[in-house]
Design brief:
Blueprint: H1 7-30, H2 40-66, H3 69-107, E1 114-115, H4 118-124, E2 131-132, E3 142-146, E4 153-156, E5 173-179, E6 185-190, E7 198-200, E8 205-213, E9 217-223, E10 228-233, E11 237-241, H5 242-246, E12 251-253, E13 279-286, E14 289-295, E15 301-308, E16 310-311, E17 314-315, E18 318-320
Helix pairs in contact: 1-2, 1-3
Length: about 325
């Protein structure tokens, strides 16, 4: 037991722990253990380091107990060299990555955001009227709404590499949100081209139409007039596909010129529901069909039925976000 408490043996235990932790990280990098695992990638790589370090640390006690003192001294020298080599390697990789990001940022300089002209943004955005009508444009996949309560800055990204994480990209612009004195949020800074699909911040409403969806990125329409798009971090807000979004709206309507009818069941040959109503409240979506409650002007349910809400990826209905 006294042998294990000798300074050389204690140093050996420590060096085995540190050196093999770095060896574990190198092994994980060599086998691409965290590749394509998004946010879990870092934890997986770290797990390899902890695993290697734990095994080496336990083994070091047995080695120190049975090995000769001279062998332990030489092992400490070798482990020290290994530790320094691994440290230098990781430092070089870090500097190389920083240099690469710096070059990329110079090639794609971030456009400075300007103080937000909220009157202009509100005038161009489709809300505060908070109602949408069917159009011939592509409706996309749904909507993305930023979590400005917890993330005061929403970053926009230009050309992205889907094989790299969000942290390895440099933003090209951003929206800066500011809390108001009596609650709620407003926009402090925003790009001059910002025209979101729906915006009414006094109701905490800010929706961007979603064009494409990846593991970490979401492509959104940032200007509904020019159809300009940008990418945002998927985890900086909430992704809402059309069914989920429509189940959260206040009501939906069939346009006056629509040939669609409220039917008893979700197919074209089903009988029509002729009960008079003021608006429809979505309660269930099944494919291209939506089950709705029929409400009158007094907000009372007067019936229930099904409507055809989408056909060939085109919306057949309008919706109102608020009453």
């Amino acid at each position: 037991m006294k042998k294990l408490l000798k300074p050389a043996n204690l140093l050996f235990n420590l060096l085995m722990l540190l050196a093999f932790f770095l060896v574990g990280l190198l092994f994980a990098k060599w086998i691409d253990a965290g590749k394509g695992q998004m946010l879990a990638g870092g934890a997986i790589v770290l797990g390899y380091g902890v695993l290697f370090a734990g095994i080496a640390f336990i083994a070091s006690f047995f080695i120190a107990y049975y090995a000769k003192h001279r062998a332990i001294v030489w092992a400490n020298v070798a482990l020290s060299v290994l530790l320094v080599t691994c440290f230098l390697y990781f430092r070089m990789q870090y500097q190389k990555r920083r240099q690469s990001q710096s070059i990329e940022q110079k090639e794609r300089p971030m456009k400075p955001t300007a103080p937000a002209d909220n009157e202009k943004i509100l005038a161009l955005a489709k809300v505060p009227k908070i109602t949408s009508r069917p159009t011939k444009k592509e409706p996309g996949l749904g909507f993305f709404t930023p979590n400005f309560h917890q993330r005061p800055i929403l970053y926009f990204y230009g050309n992205i590499n889907l094989e790299k994480s969000v942290m390895e990209h440099s933003p090209t612009d951003s929206i800066v949100f500011k809390p108001l004195e009596h609650g709620g949020f407003d926009i402090a800074e925003a790009p001059p081209w910002l025209v979101p699909e729906h915006m009414k911040l006094d109701y905490d409403l800010l929706y961007f139409q979603m064009v494409s969806l990846g593991r970490e990125f979401v492509e959104v329409v940032v200007n509904t007039q020019t159809r300009q798009t940008a990418f945002v971090n998927k985890y900086d807000g909430k992704v809402m596909l059309w069914p989920e979004f429509l189940l959260k709206v206040h009501s939906v309507e069939l346009p006056l010129d629509s040939k669609e009818k409220v039917r008893a069941r979700p197919f074209e040959q089903a009988g029509e529901i002729n009960t008079p109503y003021a608006f429809l409240r979505p309660i269930l979506i099944k494919g291209d069909w939506m089950q709705v409650e029929l409400w009158n002007d007094d907000f009372k349910k007067v019936g229930k039925g099904w409507i055809h809400w989408r056909h060939n990826e085109n919306l057949l209905i309008s919706y109102s976000l608020l009453s």
